[in-house]
Structures
1.
Amino acid sequence: MSLRSLLTKALLQFPLATAIAVIGLTCLVSLAPGGCAGGRLDILNGYRVLHVSGTPEEMGEQHGRLLRTEVRRMVKDLVHPGGSAGWLTYDKLIEGTKTMEAHLPFAFQRELEALAEAAGVDYLDLVAAQLFGDVSRATYCTSFALFGPATANGELMCGRNLDYWDNGVSEYAALLIHYRPKEGIPFVTVSWAGIINGWTLMNTKGIACSNNNSYGESNSLEGISTCFMLRKIVQYSASLNDAERILKTTPRACGTNMLVAQANPADAFIAEYDHQAIVLRRAERGYVIASNHFRKLYRDDDYRSWCSRYCKVEDLINEDYGKIDRRLNLAGAEGVPIESINLHSAMLYPATGDLCVSMGKIPACKQTYRWFHLVESGLTAKGVREGRDKRVSRR
């Protein structure tokens, strides 16, 4: 006799007891400890790690249910009047959000709709939280990649500092999100509760990417948000060629310096683009760096006179050129982050799926960096690295 038949027979004979047992069994199957219908919220190495999987609707629902309180607070603090939406009024922010929302891939819209419903927040307010860095802009952050002759063993190493205002959101909302989408490649993003794109991302195919706002000659909201461009690249790219195709065929919005790197074979470029134009600045001598100025799209030959963060990274690379290994935390080095607004700082090693992250307290670069390891099935903890000590034990 089938399980369905047995349950039906039991329900007819002992309706109340069977109903209670079935409800209990359903809860055990669908809700693992810290989990919600396929999703899971862990504490690893002292940081919260959200695991979501499935369709866009399933991932959005898992995210919204597991982090409902934090998502609601984030939207209130970041988007509503008095929040961190820069100098824009709420009405202006939502006006710009409506324009950009129309350019989001349908799958991302579906995920956001499910997340908004599960968390009990307004859909457009939630979308605005994803987009406010494009709608209300500022030029901060630093990214870089080095490999080949620049490193001791040729390994690809990527660094990134997210320097921006957050109105206190990072302190309670910072987390890592491990995605296993039904369509696409598993990846991890350094993000906040309620933010489905993020600012520093790496997938299981060895692709890493991050963004740096810049001002081009053609800035528009009629295109995909910078951070959703990152999400699209990391979810659907197994190579730099894939990423280049996405960048060139997707309607772009505002000016950006975007780092994209691949582990095998090790290589990287900075995509310098605005609404109308795009060029790829390829690595030279095994490294490439980006802050917030264009060096190729609109050439700036005098960058060393004013971009101290770019120059600091370049000087540190040249100081130890050919000897750099995982013991050197370039992202946390003095002069690279903007300490007063340093929300997270990270080093990524895409060839092995390792990442070293500090987040949740400003300045992140002066806090303990936590090690994690990414595989398709999940994210695991590895150890810690103290602040900005240049030389620490090898991981």
2.
Amino acid sequence: MTVSRPTRIVDGKRVTSPFYRGKYRLKGDLKPTYISLGVRHKAVALEKLKQVIQQKELESCGLAVPMKDRELARRDLTEAVSDYLDDLRSTSRDAKYISNVGARIRNLCLVLRWKKLSDLTGESFQKWRNVQTKAPKTLNEYLDAISGFYNWLRARNTSLPANPFQTVKRAETRGNEVRRRRAFTLAEMVRLLAVSGDYSAAITLAVTTGLRRAELKSLKWSDISLDSSVATVKVRASTSKNKQEKYLPLNADAVNAVCKLRLDHVVSDEPVFTRQSMPGIWKFKSLLKLAKIEYVNACGEVADFHSLRHTFATWLNAAGVAPSVAMELMRHSEMRLTAKTYNHLTMGGLVGGLSLIPSLIPDAPRYAPGFGPERDSEKQGGTNDEREGNLLPTDSEILSYDLGQTGTNLKRGKMAPEVGFEPTTNRLTVDRSTTELLRNCAFLRAV
């Protein structure tokens, strides 16, 4: 252990520094360590070097926290959060995602009075969460934000203690959704498009491709190809939620909607939808009101713009599309999202599936007498439809069951008239016309 004032050559002359530096080598070190002491007096420099060596020995024995960790624990969280968000930007993360993460972390720091890294504890977060009225999904997003921030810090300093938020259990979201969406029925979609006007193209494209609102808003005319044998729309990786480029086919309804919107000469870089053709939240609510569609039904389910994506998934399932194909069209990473979250089944759909299993009693009617509306001598859609033998459901009922209509209330002895199911009428479908869907449902009647 020695202290000295370092020298250097400047313009051919040896210049001595006025400040002392120390030199020491601990047990096990292969080379000596030099440290700037920043003092001018030798006695003070020796005393300071002794303290440094004593602290290093305590750290090597595990009896003291390293100086680097102490400085990190005292670091201002505001500065650390800014560095974390800058790092997210450098990795090309979505701007909205970065904004949401930063807002959640700063909100926690403000409410819980977190100012230093040592203030971050799982217990304080749990106490804050216990008194919140936010949705479980939102609370989990807060947990993910602060936990990701701490993991980022720990990746840069492995001596930090384990993530204190790893032991915090996530809030249960199943059955506790604040906003439960539903799928539109075919009749509702027909009424909605009838009053949509200039917004019909965006609604049609959303319900026939499953594109999200943000993806529709970012669409450019160069992303739509109508000249090839199969019309497609390209979802660019920069605008997609999963950051993957995908080409989706367009059916006849979507092509017709796009052709009506497209001008004779369009610039490829221009957006497909503008403020005049893309409905906002309140405008979509007003369209629902005009179409006499409840925004929130009796079951508390919401019908908003994102419900069009739910409708697309439900129609794919009703049409018998293979689950793997439906997952690709929905651009989901796992089957559970497609089959559970976005697919909406009703009692009618369950009964329709149950009717396909073999009967244990020979010659038993497929549809139990008295189930559903009675059809003897009852007028259906303005006609007197009398049938012989077992009472079978009409095509409109089968389609409503398969399409997973919600909120349907069929009373015994009466049936709603068949509206909008004429074979020659063009309707919204997944990838075929209404006539083809009815033809595919005909197997339910061949019993």
3.
Amino acid sequence: MKKTVIILLLIFFALNCAAADANIAQELEKILNQKQSLDIIFFEQCVISPSLIDWQCKALGNEIQTLDVNESNTLLNYGIEVYNRTNKSMKIYSLVKKDSWKENSFVMELEAFEKKRGDFYIDVNYAGKEFEEIEIAVLGLSEEKNIKKIISIQLDWKEYGLVKQEVSGIVLPSIGISALVLAIMSIIAIGIVFSGRKQLPPEKGEKTKNIFARIILHPGFWVIALAIAAWDTAYTFNRYFNANDVSYTIESFIVSSVFAITFPLIFLIIIWLVDFYEREPLHFIISMFLWGMVAAAISLVLNTAIIGSVGSIGILGFIFGAIAIAPLVEELSKGLGVFAMSKHREMQGALDGIVYGFCIGLGFAVTENLLYFTRLSPAIFGGNLTDWLFVLFYRSLFCCLSHGWMTATTGGLLGYFKRKTGSSKLLYFLTAVSGAIILHATANASILPDAITSLMTGSYIPFFNPLVDTGLTLIFAIAIFGYLRKDKERLMALLGKKNK
């Protein structure tokens, strides 16, 4: 009986609320036909982009306002200051007219002769038209009289539509060029591997007793790693999915994915082939690459939790998170993989560690770049194709190399310690990863002067950050060349003994 009464009461209240809403809607419709004007002292329009980077405000007059919109799902924030000249309380509502008047919302209530400020929001989404006109009505309801104020807004979607067409036009070419380049690289790799070049013999002794190393190198780990990578990809797509323009979002995501995977795979093939005289087993290279993708997922969870809480204190918190917390979390996550490999007999020196560390960094860069590329795509962030392509190429080149060399620092030092001492200890790992953390913090800090310069000049031309990444590349190139010469000398000495 009690349940029946409760259900009936809920139905009664729901019907009353629906009836009340209908009555308000009818009253608002009546006011629209009246000539009396609401006394609005101040009317301001703010355009808020989905990225929350672009926030532009201006006062509105009586003329028709033209608004250039380059992002779907843009939020228009209207701030109004109203003076109630009646001797009765007044409720303020807003209405929007696209095809018909709808979406009424309560803004605020004013007492008799009260002046007050209030805000309301309107979502605008791309509907396939170059130009779209909407009308916004602010209505006042009181017992004494009902009044209104109507503003016309013309939305200009021309730029948005053009950029959408441009992005759509590069989907197939990007896939085709990527497939062609990777195919050529693969053919070159196969040719070099089967060229008959002499190699140093494999290291002797037990492979490894380390459980973590065995897990990472097991084919079953590949399945787990790919599942985690798939989850990470789905997370990225879902987080930045624009339901108001599905095709645009999908096309942008495809291009982002192509760039995110192509450059790391190119660098992966190169670093594997560079070790001419003692090439690492291919399944080791793949395992390290996949561990990098797993490390990116771990870092995503930890960075979101830690930097999110630190960032709540303001911009200084975010800077501290980027320079101190992110390098610590990311290099420890990546470094665990190369530390596990240092327990294996295949990793005997600095060059082996550099190769393994670089592969882990590349796997990490795939996941991180996909997140950045999708978030900064015109479908989500707005902007034009040129700016997005700059981000795609810049991060694909410099950020891949940066992450690779940072973890190569951990691997190289671990390999060096193992060559000198014959063992791999936790102390050696902590020492090695500290170097990677310092390099990572330096690279992240180098973004600050570039950001300050861009604020002063009005255009972003990176200098310090690519300078750091280029410097790391040159240093490691020299180091790799030096170790290759030593390997060549070992190989020549070995071949000389056999000939004797």
4.
Amino acid sequence: MGLIKPDANGFLFRPDPSLAMMHAANRKSIISVFEKWMLGNDGKGMFAGYTYWGQFIAHDVAPRVGSDRKRSSSLDLDSLYGSGWYDREIALNTAEGKFLTGFNTADGVGDATRMDLFRRADKTAVIPEPRNEDNLILSQFHLLLQRFHNKIVDGLKSLSPALSPQVRFKMARNNVERVFRRLVIENFLEHVCDKNVYEHVIKQGNRYFKFKKNTDLPMEFSAAIFRFGHSLVRQDYHLNDVAHNVSLKEIFGLTGPGGFGGRQSLPAGKVVDWKFFFPLPPILERAAGAGRIDPFIEEGMYKIPAGKGKTVNIVEKNLDRGIETMLASGQSCVSYILEKYKNLSRDIGLHQDNHITRLNQEQIELLTNSRVLDCTPLWLYVLLEAKSNYGLGACLGPFASLLVCESIRSACENSQATESFELPELSNLHSMSDLIAWVG
């Protein structure tokens, strides 16, 4: 049986113009589902760091809508490295082959250190993917990978002092790419996806979709499914031992575009300590949990700063994107897959009504009254499926997990890295916690 392939426009499932018209006419009612959805108390899901790791991955494999900058949809970290050594959108110490990092502003809490991105006079970071300054935590994750690169350069210099800075840069990039992809497959997908799907697709190697090399990932992935991370965002975060309960509004403001509260760069007292986002020894429990994957979206996500006094409502943005691209309903997508692969209902528990199996009567009535119970917008379907999964929103459900596992695996396989040498100590890194501990 042939694998499911995207059409010429990048759709895995036939677009549905009539459904898009219906959802457009019913837009306010659909938005009310999110506004009325109550915050559950289902315990801890994945760690908070996975929210922003996922956002970084999304920015690397899904070029910004309307961008004229040439980008790859492979997971080759061009959001970190751009086109390489000669790219003006990366700040390099060309005498070493390292990324330049920027000074923090001393704020009476912490001293000025180089724990910020390198910035221009207008405070914008010199990075090839401007979306990686959408919020403080994401920009600090970008910096973490720059520091990872720099430490690898130091290791290469110790092993082979005669290497030129440009060769060290290229070898370090290939090392970073290789380790990053390994961690995405072994650590990120394992935590984010349904365990049965992860075992079936990643561990056992089963395939149901085929994506062409050097083409964008499917529209359903970028316009809906991988936007599940917006539901993981918390209302506040502990950033370090001193900066506790920092609000989402401040998280957005502690960036170049956000203005740093009038400072020139990130205040030293707001530098992210990753032990509060990923489990790091000796006290693993310090790492906070992310939100659950469900239709509850934190209030701050309804008013994301967008510059010049404007804000973005992420619920409206994601629903409108589904309408604009005329995405098929979640039920239609699942039905199409099961028509071709009936065994998936047995092998991974894929069923058309997975989005409602564990909802209560009040939640069912909310969906019914909003006329989306049986023809659910794809993004909402993904959130509901996760809520109804055995983990109650701790991970994605079977349908979304299948698409995420196959799409991300394809993005990893289509990467361009060719350098085979790897620093010996990097073979011991199998989780983001391992990487953070190694960088120090």
